[in-house]
Design brief:
Layout (H helix, E strand, L loop, with lengths): L2 H7 L1 H13 L8 H13 L3 E5 L3 E7 L2 E11 L26 H16 L6 E9 L7 H6 L10 E12 L3 E2 L3 E4 L1 E10 L3 E2 L9 H19 L6 E10 L5 E2 L2 E10 L4 H18 L3 E10 L2 E3 L1 H14 L5 E2 L12 H4 L4 E9 L21 H16 L2
Parallel strand pairs: 3-4, 3-5, 5-16, 6-15
Antiparallel strand pairs: 1-2, 2-4, 6-16, 7-14, 8-12, 8-13, 9-11, 10-12
């Protein structure tokens, strides 16, 4: 039986799994039910299972012949969003929603594991199924620190993402940079509090913050080379408790995203500008950076393999190689910077089905007709890489 026919026979189960995970979403580090369901499913397939970093799950399928090891990774966490889709299988956990597609990722990887488990005797090598916790807040490093890339050590790692900006049925893939690095910053500007009626007796950090915002915007538009994409966004500002009180401090939070390898220099200059502006307006400041993820860089050889398989699955005309790279990030990069990796997008965008809505929206939904594509891509990728 062909792979595509086998997948079609499992289509009902594939959709049922996706909807079950969608109905029961869990936030990062709290994926308790999700992890147990994954663990039970893989165990029933006769796949060796171990926990990693708490709610992370790793399944290891040993083939009947010696060979290389390939890891397939998917993310399992949901987002703190109140769902407004009106689906009959909407979230039953108020304020938590699978608004990014991770529910579909889990279902696709489980069915991939089911198909490959029936082929284990013919598989030359080993397949690892990694279900990653807390992707929305950099959970990959936690799993790596807990031995995710050991026993066995993968020779390659592959990831995918259901993607609403790309039309249903298309696959987006490029070599090299595909998703940006992301560093989250917190700036605390310290002035001197006082009465709103006597601002000359105080040092208002809100005024200073306005100049900092202008300086950041000028830095991004004037100093940075437009040929090397960089996005600096201030997304949170907080200061003050009452309309007649000048506060002691103001906090700014946001992110710096780079689709190039000079991100450290960008952060260094950002810090210098903020400190200088604060000093000019008689304020002090502290600046903290937290790594969301490094830049996701696709291995050239693995990219060619994905393109070859995509031709067989969706056809040459449905492979998208332009307008694919984005300034969003994914901590899959923490795996692929340690071992050769490839990451690609499966389009789910359909105006008719209203699945072209932005990720992280309370109205987000996926086109379930694309789920079999993800399964077939992963099964064929394993077969091609291992040579079975």
């Amino acid at each position: 039986m062909s792979i595509s026919k086998e997948i079609q026979q499992l289509r009902h189960e594939l959709i049922k799994l996706r909807r079950d995970f969608h109905t029961h979403p869990e936030l990062g580090l709290k994926e308790i039910r999700t992890a147990c369901a994954i663990e039970d499913y893989l165990t029933a397939l006769g796949i060796s299972v171990r926990r990693c970093a708490g709610t992370g799950v790793i399944g290891v399928l040993k083939g009947g012949k010696p060979g290389k090891t390939i890891m397939l990774r998917c993310d399992i966490d949901a987002l703190p969003i109140y769902e407004q889709t009106g689906l009959h299988f909407s979230s039953q956990n108020p304020g938590v929603m699978h608004a990014c597609g991770h529910d579909g990722h889990i279902a696709m990887l489980l069915i991939t594991a089911k198909i490959l488990a029936t082929q284990r005797i013919e598989i030359p090598g080993c397949v690892m199924f990694l279900f990653q916790l807390n992707e929305e807040d950099a959970g990959a490093e936690m799993m790596i620190a807990d031995g995710a890339l050991e026993n066995p050590r993968p020779d390659a790692v592959c990831g995918l993402h259901l993607w609403s900006p790309i039309d249903t049925g298309k696959i987006g893939i490029v070599p090299g940079p595909i998703m940006a690095s992301s560093y989250y910053f917190k700036v605390v500007i310290k002035g001197r509090g006082g009465h709103g009626g006597a601002p000359h007796m105080a040092i208002n950090p809100i005024d200073t913050a306005s100049h900092v915002l202008t300086a950041i915007k000028s830095f991004q538009t004037v100093e940075l080379d437009a040929r090397f994409p960089t996005v600096i966004s201030v997304c949170k500002i907080h200061g003050g408790t009452k309309e007649i009180i000048i506060p002691e401090t103001v906090e700014l939070e946001g992110s710096i995203r780079c689709l190039h390898d000079q991100d450290e220099a960008v952060r260094r200059r950002f810090k210098e500008i903020v400190e200088d502006v604060c000093h000019a307006y008689r304020c002090n400041c502290s600046i903290e950076f937290k790594c969301g993820n490094t830049m996701l860089n696709n291995d050239g050889k693995l990219t060619q393999i994905v393109k070859q398989i995509a031709r067989e699955v969706v056809g040459e005309e449905n492979i998208q190689t332009e307008n694919v790279s984005v300034m969003l990030g994914d901590d899959f990069a923490e795996f692929s910077r340690r071992i050769p990796g490839v990451y690609y997008f499966i389009g789910i965008g359909s105006k008719e089905k209203k699945t072209d809505i932005e990720h992280h929206s309370p109205f987000f939904n996926i086109d379930e007709d694309t789920l079999p594509i993800g399964v077939e891509m992963q099964v064929r990728l394993v077969q091609e890489f291992l040579g079975g």
